[in-house]
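Following up on my earlier thread - several people asked me to post the actual chain instead of describing it. Fair enough. Here it is, all 128 residues.
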Amino acid sequence: MTKHNDVSLASGAKGVIVGVRLPSGRCPARDFLESLDNQAQAQFKARFERLTSVGFLRNPESIRPLEVPGAPKVWEIKAPAGPGWRLYVIREQTTWVATHGKAKPPNKKVSGEARRARNIFTNWTNDE
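Reply from S.P.:
Thanks for posting it. Predicted structure:
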């Protein structure tokens, strides 16, 4: 599911990763990725290349589904550089929709990040 108002972050034979573009024109996922140092950017780039060319990442140190009630399921793509960075994504068939990113939150705040990702995603899907 790609839309005219998304931002391409990566693409390959087995899928694409797009960022949500807000009504303001900003893309929180792209803004987050561009704010990172070179090491963290390289770690995310490697994960994106594998995810879009193979279709999955097996290592739980690279990606994990968040065990938070609600739908749709929210995943976090992880980069260990710095404080440990997280990019929140929702999967729609072969499209991974990136909503936002941040430094690794404490466990008690993960459900809030999942809620934020779902809100951004829902507003984006309803914005047509």
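The longest strand covers residues 95-103. That should answer part of your original question.
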